[in-house]
Here is the input.
Amino acid sequence: MTEARLRSFLSTVLLLLGIGTLGFAGYALYTDVRYPLGALKVADVQGLKVELATQPKGPNLHVTGTIADGTLVVRKVSLLHPGGAMWLKIYPMAEQQAAPVAIDMRVPLKAGVMELQFGPSREVIWRSKPE
Here is the structure.
């Protein structure tokens, strides 16, 4: 392969990677704008716990906890897959509740995923143990 063709190929690859990164960032920003309360933070969920569970359909992460603010309910759950991680964002909405809302969900664990990040700051709440 000539040097000119190699440069052209590498330029195309870098351009495509840049477009993909902008698309991912744009989606994350768009989702945050649509939900004015923003995604829950780790501090917003009491007793947040993540356990690795094996199911017949494959491994998953069992995420449990309780939304600390009793006036919030879950409106939307977003799960993104940036690289070797999964990014879980839970968007609440205000509603008059008599009791706190429990979070109890199972997230399918895809091959190659090494950690689960939570909330807008992408705080790591689970990391795969080294084999």
Observations:
- The first strand starts at residue 45 and ends at 55.
- The radius of gyration is 19 Å.
- The mean pLDDT is 80.
